[in-house]
């Protein structure tokens, strides 16, 4: 009756950790206050899993910011700019790496594989010295043990840690971080030895990079890692956990062949081919398969009958004692507890399972697999599955027909982009290096209160509209004062860039407390797409039209694109994702055309999550990019040449999909650049020609640090080395929602001054 959970959400059912972190950062509470909230959350989670009957309960999956940053602290790989002098790494150095400080910018942040979670990228080089500098994993194991709960400590595996790292500043871009493996392993040996000394019998090492396309030399390094750990730290069982995709045949065979590895974790939800591979290759004596059959990345209730059939099939091939029922990955990527949802109707609620419910599913499957089936629970589950399959609220034949018909056209604008830009410039009359922002402005406590009270029917619609219009007026006035060239209305009416649209589209449902961590204290509440999607009425026209009436400068209409809405939602799993994306694209197309008709001549359709949905295996990427890019083009294929279409992307690696980005055929793209050491610019240095407008971000908005005018000007100069003057825009990396006005105003002042400075330099050079 063995059961296992890969990991669990950290924020708490009511985002307790978020509020504790932000209070600490604002100096409104102490470090001990923060530590108490964190300990209470950890203990509650361990008790919950213990009471449910989980056999292998994880520890050290809690983090104050990010598990990869925790690993950087563990091994003492602190970049020199943070002036760490050794010893146990505390909150000051830890949060400086995550968020930056007055002296130094934060470390790069990027997407965790194909999820909406972000990790802090390690910066390594030949000068990096590893030393055990955080005892967090050991202390949390001891903390659980004091409760009488035996746990499996979890660490990011050494192979994946180095694979996820990047060369430090000043180090050659070709530097191979895996070359540091010999100096890293003694630290892992030390921490595993300490855990063993405290009584740990198992340790979980997450090696998700094993599901990627690897070269033969990668497997040699991986073997070296686990042969070393097996030889140096005997007497503790090692579980190597993989997730997010099919495990390649060579990777699985490597794991099977390593004597030091006692457990192999595989994702049998996203890894559709892994089941056949496991059955074909088998599993030798002394090893256990941790079978990830409960989806850790979506909120749909498990089809228990199907999963039990799969598990029984596995047991028949491998042996009853060789299968542990598990989640497909950490439950970090799903909402916390369905019991906190009181407004979702009972039918739809019966189709769902959040993290707490998934723990129960894992235990129920483990019991059933060994002859202790809860018949009532399985019967209830079967009824919910049947209800969802047949429900008329899920299926709309008209929407399905429209979506199927659009596949017969490429939906391209007829006029080439360079000609469109010329026509647009005649109307917009923008200076060189036009300045803009990405969309949102700071969301103040007062603004959040107004939205909350309107949603709770505590203020009238008239009062709400008046308050939002006042906020828009404030944002417009500020942009006038700053002399920004293309305005935004600041999005004060929006709670979230996806939720706002989903609330107005058919086929979506929303939670009250379905929060999921994106990075640090930032949480999102993804909509649930349960049925066919369509747009009953205009969603943004009223606010954009009002904002444009306040200024003669161009006002961007702000929309979230279909691929981002898809990738940042919990998506129905009963049809291909591409079908759902096409339905959303048609809804956004209607909105784009209504904005244009209302006099909005610049429309931004954000595709922040385009890269995020890219499959991890190269063999599967082309198909995704075809339908994703096509979906974007559908949204704006019908507008006039004089209507300028922008898009925005953030915090991912884009260089390998730059040709697909060009194929989106947007007039202007703004894209994250500053926090990732301007990696985006390298692709243009390597000869890629980009004819449309482009605004690589000139400063990082995810840090409270305010960049100076000369720092921004220097970034613009670097951009002009590889991009034509006539296509370059000046803008921040991302929206300003999470920042305070005290940070935003001086940063934007410096940004505009930097653009003017470069304009003056260029004029004097003529």
UniProtKB/TrEMBL annotation:
Binds 2 Zn(2+) ions per subunit. Residues 3-317 form the Cobalamin-independent methionine synthase MetE N-terminal domain. L-homocysteine binds at residues 438-440, 606. GO terms for biological process: methionine biosynthetic process; methylation. It catalyses: 5-methyltetrahydropteroyltri-L-glutamate + L-homocysteine = tetrahydropteroyltri-L-glutamate + L-methionine. Its cofactor is Zn(2+). Its EC number is 2.1.1.14. Coiled coil: none annotated. Transmembrane segments: none annotated. The active site is at residue 702. Belongs to the vitamin-B12 independent methionine synthase family. Catalyzes the transfer of a methyl group from 5-methyltetrahydrofolate to homocysteine resulting in methionine formation. NCBIfam families: met_syn_B12ind, PRK05222.1. This is 5-methyltetrahydropteroyltriglutamate--homocysteine S-methyltransferase. It comes from Adiantum capillus-veneris.
């Amino acid at each position: 009756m063995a059961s296992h959970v890969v990991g669990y959400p950290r924020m708490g059912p009511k985002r307790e950790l978020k509020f504790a972190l932000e209070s600490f950062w604002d100096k409104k509470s102490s470090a001990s206050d923060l530590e108490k909230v964190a300990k209470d959350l950890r203990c509650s989670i361990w008790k919950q899993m213990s009471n449910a009957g989980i056999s292998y309960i994880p520890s050290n999956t809690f983090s104050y910011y990010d598990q990869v940053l925790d690993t950087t602290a563990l091994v003492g790989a602190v970049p020199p700019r943070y002036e760490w002098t050794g010893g146990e790494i505390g909150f000051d150095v830890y949060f400086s790496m995550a968020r930056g400080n007055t002296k130094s910018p934060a470390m790069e942040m990027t997407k965790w594989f194909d999820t909406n979670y972000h990790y802090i990228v390690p910066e390594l080089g030949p000068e990096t010295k590893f030393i055990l500098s955080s005892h967090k994993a050991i202390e949390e194991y001891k903390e659980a043990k004091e409760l009488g709960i035996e746990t499996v400590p979890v660490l990011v595996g050494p192979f994946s840690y180095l694979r996820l790292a990047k060369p430090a500043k000043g180090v050659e871009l070709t530097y191979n971080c895996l070359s540091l493996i010999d100096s890293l392993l003694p630290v892992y040996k030390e921490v595993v030895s300490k855990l063993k000394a405290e009584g740990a019998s198992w340790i979980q090492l997450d090696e998700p990079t094993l599901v990627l396309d690897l070269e033969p030399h990668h497997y040699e390094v991986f073997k070296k890692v686990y042969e070393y750990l097996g030889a140096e730290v005997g007497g503790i069982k090692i579980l190597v956990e993989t997730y997010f995709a099919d495990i390649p045949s060579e990777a699985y065979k490597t794991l099977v062949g390593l004597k030091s590895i006692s457990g192999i974790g595989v994702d049998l939800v996203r890894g559709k081919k892994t089941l056949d591979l496991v059955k074909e290759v088998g599993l030798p004596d002394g090893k256990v398969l941790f079978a990830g059959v409960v989806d850790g990345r979506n909120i749909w209730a498990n089809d228990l009958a199907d999963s039990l059939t799969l598990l029984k099939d596995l047991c028949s091939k491998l042996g009853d004692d060789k299968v542990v029922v598990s989640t497909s990955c950490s439950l970090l990527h799903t909402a916390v507890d369905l019991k906190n949802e009181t407004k979702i109707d009972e039918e739809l609620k019966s189709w769902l399972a959040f993290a707490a419910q998934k723990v129960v599913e894992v235990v129920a499957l483990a019991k059933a697999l060994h002859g202790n089936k809860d018949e009532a629970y399985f019967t209830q589950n079967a009824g919910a599955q049947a209800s969802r399959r047949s429900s008329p609220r899920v299926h709309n034949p008209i929407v399905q027909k429209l979506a199927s018909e659009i596949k017969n056209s490429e939906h391209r604008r007829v006029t080439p982009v360079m000609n469109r830009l010329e026509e647009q410039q005649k109307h917009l009359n923008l200076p060189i290096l036009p300045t803009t922002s990405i969309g949102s402005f700071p969301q103040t406590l007062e603004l959040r209160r107004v939205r909350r009270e309107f949603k709770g029917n505590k203020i009238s619609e008239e009062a709400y509209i008046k308050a939002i219009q006042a906020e828009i007026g404030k944002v417009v006035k500020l942009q006038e004062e700053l002399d920004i060239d293309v305005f935004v209305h600041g999005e004060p009416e929006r709670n979230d860039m996806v939720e706002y649209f989903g609330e107005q589209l058919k086929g979506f449902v929303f939670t009250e407390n379905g929060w999921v961590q994106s990075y640090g204290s930032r949480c999102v509440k993804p909509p649930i797409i349960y049925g066919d999607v369509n747009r009953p009425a205009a969603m943004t026209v009223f606010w954009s039209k009002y904002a444009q009436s306040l200024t003669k400068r161009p006002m961007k209409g702000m929309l979230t694109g279909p691929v981002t809405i898809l990738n940042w939602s919990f998506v129905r799993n009963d049809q291909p994702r591409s079908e759902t994306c096409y339905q959303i694209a048609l809804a956004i197309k209607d909105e784009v055309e209504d904005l244009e008709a209302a006099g909005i001549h610049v429309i931004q359709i954000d595709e922040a999550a385009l890269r995020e949905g890219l499959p991890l295996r190269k063999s599967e990427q082309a198909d995704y990019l075809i339908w994703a890019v096509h979906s974007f083009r559908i949204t704006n294929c019908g507008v006039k040449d004089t209507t300028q279409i922008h898009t925005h992307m953030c915090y991912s690696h884009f260089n390998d999909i730059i040709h697909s980005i060009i194929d989106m055929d947007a007039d202007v793209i703004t894209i994250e650049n500053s926090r990732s050491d301007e990696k985006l610019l390298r692709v243009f240095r390597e000869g890629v020609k980009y004819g449309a407008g482009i605004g690589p971000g000139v400063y990082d908005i995810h840090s409270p640090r305010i960049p100076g005018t000369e720092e921004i000007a220097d970034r613009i100069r670097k951009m002009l080395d590889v991009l034509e003057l006539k296509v370059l825009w000046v803008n921040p990396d991302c929206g300003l929602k999470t920042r305070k006005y005290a940070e935003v105003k001086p940063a934007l002042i410096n940004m505009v001054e930097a653009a003017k400075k470069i304009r003056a330099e260029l004029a004097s050079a003529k």
